[in-house]
Specification:
Layout: H1 9-19, H2 25-54, H3 58-84, E1 87-89, E2 98-106, E3 109-113, H4 121-132, E4 136-140, H5 146-159, E5 165-167, H6 172-179, E6 185-189, H7 192-204, E7 209-212, E8 217-221, H8 227-239, E9 249-255, H9 259-274, H10 290-300, E10 305-308, E11 312-313, E12 318-319, E13 322-325, E14 342-348, H11 351-359, E15 366-370, H12 374-383, E16 388-391, E17 412-413, H13 418-424, E18 426-434, H14 451-457
Parallel strand pairs: 3-4, 3-6, 4-5, 6-7, 8-9, 8-15, 9-14, 13-14, 15-16
Antiparallel strand pairs: 1-2, 2-18, 7-17, 10-13, 11-12
The structure holds nicotinamide-adenine-dinucleotide (NAD).
Length: 459
């Protein structure tokens, strides 16, 4: 599509929506099956495209772009009828006799704008939810992952109904041209700064938005934690995709009593995962482009002492998995979302100090806690806010289809995955159906003598 031909894309997709074809459950089911077929047939090509874009190992490409989406599509196929059917609710006495229910309606023409870091999953998983809910949809992949974007643009029209699903490739200008149109829902995944631009554009048309943003997700390690397990799970969540994961543990707050022991465990874990020279490891990815490489390397400056890593190569867009200690409070690495393979580890007096640290900052996308103490777990979960959370793990909550996935405050609004995603792209219309036969005149004027009865009925 050229810029001129997608000028009126929202209207074109809304015209398709108005034909009613996308509301039909058999159409939705066929589209979901076709999407599953796309993933099953082209899993290797998807992993290769992502490798071309950011050097991601095949296993990470497969698991996090193909596997995760397949699980969600199969789940949606199983649950579709239940999600789409009217949801009965009780009727109050004053309305009897009547039926009350929630009619689950698709919103219409939706726009989905994706980021580069999980370029296939983060575009096609929301697309799946939008289609399951019966919408038409325009997809704008990130220009910063060109191989993956080109693959999506090539494959989607071969599998999905082009009257209802369109891919528009292009950069910021394209994104802005799309945002200028009137949509019935906008779903954006990306940085907080662009999230604000998206919300402003949506406000022009009072279009509802889902904003899946980023932030600095803290990881709390208590003195009683199993440090070996904590190190492994933190290292995996941090260094998968070379740290370019919205849910990555951004920094660690560790009880000072086990600070050094945790650092040792992290260093050993990095060596076990990636060998003595991670630059040679086939299991460690690269940074997406020069700009981001320079940004992350810049964070090393004044960002504490590397206990492992710290090496980098601009030519290869490589930055070693790096664990940082003695990080000054004002260091830039503690101010902005790192989005790269650097892990600052900060000692705290106890977990209450960690809670205070977290609560003094914007709400993160995720919060991770390592402890065996159930009371501490409840205290941390009860006194902090974040989009999602894991106890004794990182990132894995995103793989549970029935858990809402989304941010809160600065890390975003709205959520998806499973039924929550289906509902995000649906309008929940409240409906009352009454019979014309019985009509108690209590609510109609003249009101004389009726107040006592009204008070009784509405109690
Ligand atoms: P980004 O905000 O730079 O870009 C995302 C999309 O917005 C791209 O498609 C891009 O073309 C478009 N865009 C960029 N500038 C724009 C502008 N001025 N006007 C309109 N559209 C514009 O984000 P990114 O660099 O691709 O991704 C990294 C960020 O995304 C990180 O902050 C990360 O935490 C966040 N993220 C969040 C999630 C989540 O699920 N919450 C997932 C992945 C990434």
């Amino acid at each position: 599509m050229t810029l001129t031909s997608h000028d009126a894309l929202a209207s074109t997709l809304r015209a398709t929506f108005r034909t009613g074809k996308t509301r039909d459950l058999s159409w939705r089911r066929a589209q979901l099956r076709a999407l599953l077929d796309l993933f099953e047939t082209h899993a290797d090509a998807i992993a290769q495209a992502i490798h071309a874009d950011m050097g991601r190992p095949a296993l990470e490409g497969w698991a996090l772009e193909v596997g995760v989406v397949q699980v969600e599509i199969r789940h949606a196929l199983k649950q579709l009828d239940a999600w789409a059917r009217p949801r009965k609710v009780a009727s109050p006495l004053v309305n009897l006799p009547s039926r009350s229910y929630v009619q689950v309606q698709p919103k219409g023409a939706c726009l989905i704008i994706g980021p580069w870091n999980y370029p296939v999953q983060l575009l096609l998983l929301p697309a799946m939810a939008a289609i399951a809910a019966g919408n038409t949809v325009a997809l704008k992949p990130s220009e910063l992952a060109p191989a993956s974007s080109a693959l999506v643009a090539d494959l989607v029209p071969k599998y999905l109904d082009s009257d209802a699903v369109q891919v528009v490739t292009g950069g910021v200008e394209t994104s802005q041209a799309l945002l200028a149109q009137r949509w019935d829902h906008i779903f954006f995944t990306g940085g907080t700064a662009v999230g604000r631009i998206v919300m402003q554009a949506a406000a022009q048309h009072l279009t509802p938005v889902t904003l899946e943003l980023g932030g600095k997700s803290p990881t709390l390690v208590a003195a009683d934690a199993d440090l070996e397990v904590a190190a492994r799970r933190i290292c995996w969540g941090k260094f998968v995709n070379a740290g370019q994961t919205c849910l990555a543990p951004d920094y660690v707050l560790v009880d000072a009593a086990v600070h050094d022991a945790l650092l040792d465990a992290l260093v050993q874990c990095v060596a076990r995962f990636y060998g003595d020279d991670p630059a040679q490891s086939p299991d460690f990815g690269r940074i997406i482009n020069e700009r981001h490489h320079a940004r992350v390397v810049g964070l090393l400056d004044g960002g504490g002492t590397p206990v492992c890593g710290g090496q980098w190569s601009a030519e290869e867009r490589y930055i070693a998995p790096t664990v940082l200690r003695d990080v000054p409070e004002e260091a830039q690495v503690l101010q902005e979302e790192i989005f790269g393979p650097l892990l600052p580890v900060l000692p705290v007096a106890d977990m209450d100090a960690a809670i205070d640290y977290v609560n003094a900052r914007p709400h993160p996308l995720a919060l991770y806690l390592f402890t065996r103490d159930a009371a501490l777990r409840d205290r941390v979960l009860g006194s902090t806010q974040s989009g999602g959370a894991c106890v004794n793990d990182t990132v894995s909550h995103a793989g549970v289809p029935d858990l809402p996935f989304g941010g809160v405050g600065d890390s975003g609004m709205g959520a998806y995955h499973g039924q929550v995603g289906f509902d995000e792209f649906s309008h929940l219309r409240g409906v009352v159906v009454r019979t014309p036969r019985l009509d108690v005149p209590l609510r109609y004027p003249p009101y004389e003598g009726k107040l006592t009865w009204v008070k009784r009925v509405l109690r």
